[in-house]
Amino acid sequence: MDARFDAAVIGAGAAGMMAAAVAAQRGLRVVLVDHAQRLAEKIRISGGGRCNFTNLGTSPAQFLSRNPDFCRSALRAYGPADFLDLLRAHRVSWHEKHRGQLFCDDSSESVIEVLRRECAAGGVQWRMPCTVRGVGRETGGFRLDTEAGPIRAARLVLATGGMAIPQLGATDFSLRIARQFGLRIVEPRPALVPLTFDADHWKPYAALAGVSLEVRLAHEAAAPEGGGKRSRRPARAEFLEDLLFTHRGLSGPGILQISSHWRPGDPIRIDLAPGRDMAEALVAAKSGGRQTVAAALAQAWPRRLAEAWLAAAGPADGAARDEDLANLGGQRLADVADRRLRALGERIHRWTLWPTGTAGYKKAEVMSGGVDTGELDQRSLEARRCPGLHVIGEAVDVTGWLGGYNFQWAWSSGVACGRALAVD
């Protein structure tokens, strides 16, 4: 016998559970379907197990999209303060860790339990684990062919997220169904992901794996993305964050932030000593004794970095080494001409690199791209050309910065959708 519902939500993650709970508590008969064995694994592992569930500074400025204004309505209607009210109601405590990033005092399980209780309060029905084999349109709504039998619903919500972290079961399901119903897709890419380099070119830096320091990273788009007013990406992005050297390239918060902007062929520029004038500092240090150039840099950086960076003295893109700089490390500052020290300072503040790729979806925190926002109503997340179909969360072409913004988009888009389901 067919199961009939007012709304079927596919994907029991952050956005899906929020949408299901909101709609069900407003009187709709809702079913939540997910193929996973364990509920909300991405929430569970986030923030080192404490879930960076939002950011106090959330605004549309922290989101990337072909239409940067698309997220504005949902964020205004349900922002960080609203989610904090929900956590208070369930007596979940939290703390601010860094630049507005909020984490659970206990564990990510606290957030999962809040969402589970909210679903229970509305009488949401579950089909989990349950694979959806196909989705079709029919009179009165949609039909889901699942391994637990057919499900019919007047409205369908795609909330399965993106392709990041496939080892937890992430797939392109929402994108495939969206394409089936004729919705345009912005090419998906791994985002908030480490950047990699050609192995031979990165060899001088591979031994620095594990070294980290605060830097200023900048990215300038090599060319506009697409055409027209709605097909733009920021011409320049800049972040003051930690950078981490790895065996294959660069990671850390700063690189993850820049990665969402980076495209193949684009350079990144790194200021290895933000807030300092290294050229003048090196020249001034000449009178300070017999220290070498490497020793002087080691006062600002980890010693390993100072020695290896000076020895390499070139970008990791196959360009020739700058022999003039490479031979400086062992020389005494007092013996080096001011012009050479100033050239070294300039290189320190504008180290330019050309990544060759990313670490892929296995290491990415989110997927960028997704269902084109031009296909969706920004207030309800409903597809314009397929009434009754809604797409929310990571599957939409809205990607937040690192630091809790993507979870806030999940809450905001889920609530916007849930409220719209109940109104309709």
UniProtKB/TrEMBL annotation:
Q: Which SUPFAM superfamilies does the entry link to? A: FAD/NAD(P)-binding domain, HI0933 insert domain-like
Q: What keywords does the record list, in alphabetical order?
A: FAD, Flavoprotein
RsdA/BaiN/AoA(So)-like Rossmann fold-like domain mapped to chain residues: 6-419
Task: List membrane-spanning regions.
Answer: none
Fetch the InterPro entries from UniProt: BaiN-like, BaiN-like_dom_sf, FAD/NAD-bd_sf, RsdA/BaiN/AoA(So)-like_dom, RsdA/BaiN/AoA(So)_Rossmann
Cite the Pfam families for this sequence.
HI0933_like, HI0933_like_1st
| Official protein name in the record | Aminoacetone oxidase family FAD-binding enzyme
Higher taxonomy: Bacteria, Pseudomonadati, Pseudomonadota, Betaproteobacteria, Burkholderiales
